[in-house]
Protein backbone atom coordinates (compact mmCIF):
# COMPACT_ATOMS: atom_id res chain seq x y z
CA UNK A 1 0.00 0.00 0.00
CA UNK A 2 1.04 3.60 -0.50
CA UNK A 3 2.33 5.29 2.67
CA UNK A 4 2.43 8.90 3.80
CA UNK A 5 5.77 10.71 3.93
CA UNK A 6 6.11 11.05 7.71
CA UNK A 7 8.17 8.00 8.53
CA UNK A 8 10.47 8.21 5.49
CA UNK A 9 11.16 11.93 5.97
CA UNK A 10 11.69 11.72 9.71
CA UNK A 11 14.12 8.84 9.21
CA UNK A 12 15.92 10.96 6.63
CA UNK A 13 16.10 13.80 9.14
CA UNK A 14 17.48 11.62 11.93
CA UNK A 15 20.08 10.01 9.67
CA UNK A 16 21.08 13.05 7.61
CA UNK A 17 19.96 12.23 4.07
CA UNK A 18 17.16 13.28 1.72
CA UNK A 19 14.33 11.37 0.04
CA UNK A 20 13.85 12.06 -3.67
CA UNK A 21 10.45 13.38 -4.76
CA UNK A 22 10.10 12.89 -8.49
CA UNK A 23 7.46 14.58 -10.63
CA UNK A 24 5.83 12.00 -12.89
CA UNK A 25 3.46 12.51 -15.81
CA UNK A 26 2.38 9.14 -17.15
CA UNK A 27 2.74 5.39 -16.81
CA UNK A 28 6.25 5.32 -18.24
CA UNK A 29 7.74 8.00 -15.98
CA UNK A 30 6.01 6.53 -12.91
CA UNK A 31 7.33 3.06 -13.72
CA UNK A 32 10.83 4.43 -14.26
CA UNK A 33 10.84 6.07 -10.83
CA UNK A 34 9.56 3.10 -8.81
CA UNK A 35 11.71 0.57 -10.65
CA UNK A 36 14.86 2.60 -10.03
CA UNK A 37 13.97 3.25 -6.41
CA UNK A 38 13.40 -0.46 -5.90
CA UNK A 39 16.75 -1.33 -7.48
CA UNK A 40 18.36 1.16 -5.11
CA UNK A 41 16.35 -0.22 -2.16
CA UNK A 42 15.22 3.34 -1.45
CA UNK A 43 12.00 4.95 -0.20
CA UNK A 44 10.54 7.25 -2.84
CA UNK A 45 7.93 9.97 -3.34
CA UNK A 46 5.93 10.12 -6.56
CA UNK A 47 4.43 13.54 -7.07
CA UNK A 48 2.13 15.29 -9.51
CA UNK A 49 1.29 18.97 -9.94
CA UNK A 50 -2.25 20.26 -10.53
CA UNK A 51 -1.36 20.51 -14.24
CA UNK A 52 -0.47 16.82 -14.40
CA UNK A 53 -3.67 15.92 -12.59
CA UNK A 54 -5.60 17.95 -15.15
CA UNK A 55 -3.78 16.02 -17.87
CA UNK A 56 -3.87 12.48 -16.50
CA UNK A 57 -6.57 12.46 -13.80
CA UNK A 58 -5.93 11.90 -10.10
CA UNK A 59 -7.82 8.59 -10.24
CA UNK A 60 -5.67 7.15 -13.04
CA UNK A 61 -2.47 8.30 -11.33
CA UNK A 62 -3.52 6.91 -7.95
CA UNK A 63 -4.39 3.51 -9.46
CA UNK A 64 -1.01 3.13 -11.12
CA UNK A 65 0.83 4.31 -8.01
CA UNK A 66 -1.15 1.90 -5.84
CA UNK A 67 -0.30 -0.95 -8.19
CA UNK A 68 3.39 0.00 -7.99
CA UNK A 69 3.26 0.02 -4.20
CA UNK A 70 1.99 -3.57 -4.26
CA UNK A 71 4.65 -4.71 -6.71
CA UNK A 72 7.67 -3.33 -4.89
CA UNK A 73 8.94 -3.87 -1.41
CA UNK A 74 9.91 -0.25 -0.67
CA UNK A 75 7.97 2.64 0.92
CA UNK A 76 6.22 4.60 -1.84
CA UNK A 77 4.24 7.79 -1.22
CA UNK A 78 1.94 9.58 -3.66
CA UNK A 79 2.09 13.32 -3.13
CA UNK A 80 0.22 16.31 -4.53
CA UNK A 81 2.88 18.87 -5.51
CA UNK A 82 2.00 22.60 -5.29
CA UNK A 83 -1.65 21.93 -4.49
CA UNK A 84 -3.42 25.19 -5.19
CA UNK A 85 -6.87 24.72 -3.66
CA UNK A 86 -8.64 23.07 -0.78
CA UNK A 87 -10.91 21.33 -3.32
CA UNK A 88 -8.00 19.73 -5.17
CA UNK A 89 -6.51 18.52 -1.89
CA UNK A 90 -9.79 16.80 -1.00
CA UNK A 91 -10.08 15.29 -4.48
CA UNK A 92 -6.56 13.86 -4.30
CA UNK A 93 -7.03 12.42 -0.82
CA UNK A 94 -10.24 10.82 -1.97
CA UNK A 95 -8.46 9.29 -4.97
CA UNK A 96 -5.80 7.76 -2.72
CA UNK A 97 -2.98 10.31 -2.45
CA UNK A 98 -1.13 9.77 0.82
CA UNK A 99 0.50 13.18 1.06
CA UNK A 100 -0.35 16.70 -0.10
CA UNK A 101 1.34 20.03 -0.45
CA UNK A 102 -0.82 23.07 -0.03
CA UNK A 103 0.99 25.97 -1.61
CA UNK A 104 -0.62 29.17 -0.40
CA UNK A 105 2.72 30.96 -0.34
CA UNK A 106 1.49 33.55 -2.81
CA UNK A 107 -1.19 34.73 -0.36
CA UNK A 108 -0.38 37.11 2.46
CA UNK A 109 0.94 35.47 5.59
CA UNK A 110 -2.25 35.19 7.66
CA UNK A 111 -4.14 33.75 4.67
CA UNK A 112 -1.35 31.22 4.10
CA UNK A 113 -1.62 30.18 7.77
CA UNK A 114 -5.44 29.85 7.60
CA UNK A 115 -5.49 27.90 4.33
CA UNK A 116 -2.71 25.58 5.42
CA UNK A 117 -4.25 24.93 8.83
CA UNK A 118 -7.55 23.98 7.25
CA UNK A 119 -5.79 21.45 4.99
CA UNK A 120 -3.83 20.01 7.92
CA UNK A 121 -7.05 19.49 9.86
CA UNK A 122 -8.73 17.36 7.19
CA UNK A 123 -5.58 15.60 5.96
CA UNK A 124 -4.48 14.50 9.42
CA UNK A 125 -7.95 13.15 10.10
CA UNK A 126 -7.26 10.49 7.47
CA UNK A 127 -3.52 9.96 7.97
CA UNK A 128 -2.33 12.08 5.04
CA UNK A 129 0.85 14.11 5.54
CA UNK A 130 1.01 17.83 4.67
CA UNK A 131 3.78 19.98 3.21
CA UNK A 132 3.43 23.73 2.94
CA UNK A 133 5.58 26.55 1.65
CA UNK A 134 6.78 29.76 3.16
CA UNK A 135 8.57 32.34 1.07
CA UNK A 136 8.29 31.87 -2.67
CA UNK A 137 10.33 29.86 -5.11
CA UNK A 138 10.96 31.54 -8.46
CA UNK A 139 10.66 30.02 -11.93
CA UNK A 140 8.03 28.19 -13.95
CA UNK A 141 5.96 25.44 -12.39
CA UNK A 142 2.99 24.51 -14.54
CA UNK A 143 1.03 27.64 -15.39
CA UNK A 144 2.58 29.44 -12.51
CA UNK A 145 5.46 31.71 -13.38
CA UNK A 146 7.11 33.60 -10.62
CA UNK A 147 9.39 36.40 -11.63
CA UNK A 148 12.75 36.72 -9.95
CA UNK A 149 11.77 39.97 -8.28
CA UNK A 150 8.61 38.39 -6.84
CA UNK A 151 10.61 35.70 -5.11
CA UNK A 152 11.20 36.03 -1.39
CA UNK A 153 13.37 33.94 0.89
CA UNK A 154 11.94 32.18 3.94
CA UNK A 155 12.26 34.18 7.14
CA UNK A 156 13.42 31.85 9.96
CA UNK A 157 11.36 33.40 12.77
CA UNK A 158 8.22 33.48 10.64
CA UNK A 159 8.86 29.83 9.80
CA UNK A 160 8.79 28.94 13.50
CA UNK A 161 5.45 30.70 13.91
CA UNK A 162 4.12 29.10 10.71
CA UNK A 163 4.99 25.53 11.74
CA UNK A 164 3.57 26.03 15.22
CA UNK A 165 0.28 27.53 14.04
CA UNK A 166 -0.40 25.20 11.10
CA UNK A 167 0.74 21.82 12.42
CA UNK A 168 2.29 20.86 9.05
CA UNK A 169 4.54 17.81 8.72
CA UNK A 170 7.19 19.28 6.43
CA UNK A 171 8.16 22.76 5.25
CA UNK A 172 9.27 23.87 1.79
CA UNK A 173 11.70 26.74 2.12
CA UNK A 174 12.97 29.36 -0.30
CA UNK A 175 16.76 29.73 -0.10
CA UNK A 176 17.60 30.58 -3.70
CA UNK A 177 16.53 27.60 -5.79
CA UNK A 178 14.14 28.10 -8.71
CA UNK A 179 11.94 25.78 -10.76
CA UNK A 180 13.46 24.82 -14.10
CA UNK A 181 17.10 25.22 -15.12
CA UNK A 182 19.28 28.18 -14.16
CA UNK A 183 20.65 30.86 -16.42
CA UNK A 184 23.52 32.02 -14.27
CA UNK A 185 25.38 30.61 -11.30
CA UNK A 186 23.29 28.96 -8.57
CA UNK A 187 23.65 30.70 -5.23
CA UNK A 188 22.00 29.25 -2.17
CA UNK A 189 21.58 31.01 1.16
CA UNK A 190 23.11 28.33 3.39
CA UNK A 191 23.21 30.62 6.45
CA UNK A 192 19.44 30.93 6.20
CA UNK A 193 19.05 27.16 5.87
CA UNK A 194 21.25 26.63 8.94
CA UNK A 195 19.19 29.07 10.97
CA UNK A 196 15.86 27.53 9.88
CA UNK A 197 17.17 24.02 10.70
CA UNK A 198 18.32 25.23 14.13
CA UNK A 199 14.88 26.63 14.95
CA UNK A 200 12.58 24.01 13.37
CA UNK A 201 12.39 20.30 13.97
CA UNK A 202 10.18 19.03 11.12
CA UNK A 203 11.65 17.81 7.79
CA UNK A 204 12.65 20.57 5.34
CA UNK A 205 11.97 20.45 1.60
CA UNK A 206 14.06 21.79 -1.28
CA UNK A 207 12.13 22.64 -4.44
CA UNK A 208 13.65 23.48 -7.80
CA UNK A 209 16.58 21.10 -7.37
CA UNK A 210 17.05 20.46 -11.11
CA UNK A 211 20.16 22.30 -12.24
CA UNK A 212 21.63 22.69 -8.76
CA UNK A 213 25.25 21.40 -8.83
CA UNK A 214 25.85 18.17 -6.88
CA UNK A 215 28.17 19.77 -4.31
CA UNK A 216 25.52 22.35 -3.40
CA UNK A 217 22.86 19.63 -3.14
CA UNK A 218 25.13 17.67 -0.80
CA UNK A 219 25.77 20.73 1.31
CA UNK A 220 22.03 21.45 1.56
CA UNK A 221 21.47 17.87 2.74
CA UNK A 222 24.25 18.19 5.31
CA UNK A 223 22.61 21.36 6.59
CA UNK A 224 19.24 19.68 7.03
CA UNK A 225 17.23 19.28 3.79
CA UNK A 226 15.23 15.99 3.88
CA UNK A 227 13.09 16.00 0.72
CA UNK A 228 14.32 17.07 -2.69
CA UNK A 229 12.02 17.76 -5.64
CA UNK A 230 13.15 16.91 -9.16
CA UNK A 231 11.00 17.65 -12.20
CA UNK A 232 12.91 19.32 -15.05
CA UNK A 233 15.88 16.95 -14.94
CA UNK A 234 13.50 14.08 -15.69
CA UNK A 235 11.41 15.87 -18.29
CA UNK A 236 14.35 16.90 -20.47
CA UNK A 237 15.98 13.46 -20.90
CA UNK A 238 12.53 11.87 -21.36
CA UNK A 239 11.82 14.22 -24.26
CA UNK A 240 15.33 14.14 -25.68
CA UNK A 241 15.61 10.38 -25.79
CA UNK A 242 12.27 10.14 -27.58
CA UNK A 243 13.36 12.82 -30.05
CA UNK A 244 16.47 10.73 -30.67
CA UNK A 245 14.34 7.71 -31.65
CA UNK A 246 12.49 9.77 -34.26
CA UNK A 247 15.68 11.31 -35.54
CA UNK A 248 17.06 7.86 -36.21
CA UNK A 249 13.79 6.46 -37.47
CA UNK A 250 11.29 9.16 -38.50
CA UNK A 251 8.71 6.48 -39.32
CA UNK A 252 8.71 4.83 -35.91
CA UNK A 253 5.13 4.52 -34.73
CA UNK A 254 5.31 1.93 -31.98
CA UNK A 255 4.77 3.70 -28.64
CA UNK A 256 6.28 0.68 -26.89
CA UNK A 257 9.53 1.46 -28.68
CA UNK A 258 9.83 5.22 -28.45
CA UNK A 259 8.39 5.48 -24.92
CA UNK A 260 10.71 2.74 -23.72
CA UNK A 261 13.64 4.98 -24.61
CA UNK A 262 12.14 7.76 -22.52
CA UNK A 263 11.55 5.39 -19.63
CA UNK A 264 15.16 4.17 -19.67
CA UNK A 265 16.58 7.68 -19.63
CA UNK A 266 14.43 8.62 -16.62
CA UNK A 267 15.60 5.50 -14.78
CA UNK A 268 19.22 6.58 -15.11
CA UNK A 269 18.61 10.04 -13.67
CA UNK A 270 16.53 8.72 -10.77
CA UNK A 271 19.26 6.29 -9.76
CA UNK A 272 21.92 9.03 -9.87
CA UNK A 273 19.77 11.31 -7.74
CA UNK A 274 18.97 8.65 -5.14
CA UNK A 275 22.69 7.99 -4.79
CA UNK A 276 23.45 11.71 -4.54
CA UNK A 277 20.76 12.19 -1.87
CA UNK A 278 22.24 9.40 0.29
CA UNK A 279 18.95 7.52 0.08
CA UNK A 280 20.47 4.29 -1.25
CA UNK A 281 19.61 1.23 0.91
CA UNK A 282 17.32 3.21 3.24
CA UNK A 283 14.09 1.34 2.46
P1 LIG B 1 12.78 21.45 -10.84
O1 LIG B 1 11.93 21.47 -12.07
O2 LIG B 1 13.78 22.57 -10.80
O3 LIG B 1 13.38 20.12 -10.59
O4 LIG B 1 11.78 21.74 -9.60
C1 LIG B 1 10.94 20.70 -9.18
C2 LIG B 1 9.99 21.11 -8.11
O5 LIG B 1 10.27 21.89 -7.23
C3 LIG B 1 8.65 20.49 -8.13
O6 LIG B 1 7.84 20.98 -7.13
ZN1 LIG C 1 8.25 23.01 -6.53
NA1 LIG D 1 15.62 24.09 -10.75
From TrEMBL:
Its cofactor is Zn(2+). Binds 2 Zn(2+) ions per subunit. One is catalytic and the other provides a structural contribution. One of its GO terms (biological process) is glycolytic process. It comes from the Bacteria. Zn(2+) 2 binds at residues 103, 133. Keywords: Lyase, Metal-binding, Zinc. The active site is at 81 (proton donor). Zn(2+) 1 binds at residues 82, 179, 207. Gene3D superfamilies: Aldolase class I (3.20.20.70). Dihydroxyacetone phosphate binds at residues 180, 208-210, 229-232. NCBIfam families: cbbA, fruc_bis_ald, PRK09195.1, PRK12737.1. This is Tagatose 1,6-diphosphate aldolase GatY/KbaY.
Amino acid sequence: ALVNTNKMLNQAKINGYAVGAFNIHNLETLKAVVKSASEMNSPVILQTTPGTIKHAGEDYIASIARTASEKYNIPIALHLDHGNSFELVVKCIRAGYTSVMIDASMLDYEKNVDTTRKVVEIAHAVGVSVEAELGSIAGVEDDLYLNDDKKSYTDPDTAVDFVKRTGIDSLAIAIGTAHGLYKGEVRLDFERLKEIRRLIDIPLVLHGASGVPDDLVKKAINLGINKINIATELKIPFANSIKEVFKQNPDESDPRKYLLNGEKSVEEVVKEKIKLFGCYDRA
